[in-house]
Amino acid sequence: MTAADWQSELRSRGYRLTPQRQLVLDAVRELGHGTPDxxxxxxxAKAPSVNLSTVYRTLDVLQDVGLITHTHLxxxxxxxxxxxxxxxxxxxxxxCDDIIAVPAEAVDQLVGSLRDLNGFEVDVTHMAMHxxxxxxxxxxxxxxxxxxxxx
Length: 151
Hints:
Layout: H1 3-12, H2 19-31, H3 36-46, H4 52-65, E1 68-71, E2 79-82, E3 88-93, E4 99-103, H5 108-118, E5 128-131, H6 134-150
């Protein structure tokens, strides 16, 4: 989405594209997935006078307008990303904290099963699954093999 598109969307909802809003939008896009603190850090790198409360208020406005969305990847702060990204599920590695975005279709069977069993409609845009990425799982297997060879 271009800056003109953002301006149009904001204006249609009665808002202006202020420099602070532009900085926050840019930070969300650059980070891909960012917490409010990470977004504030990226914004402050360009405009040191922007405070954290401004970032939080701006994130709320941008989410209300539909330009960004958030998910909870763990017990901490929400993680924001551009809303115009295709729907995806977040895979969070508990070993290295890497976040992998996979297409929503990857969990279609699970979503269908939950719908069939319970009538539950899953919002995959807020979905995060925790486990170990291929690199960390592979290093676990290598460590186990090394341990077995030493014995």
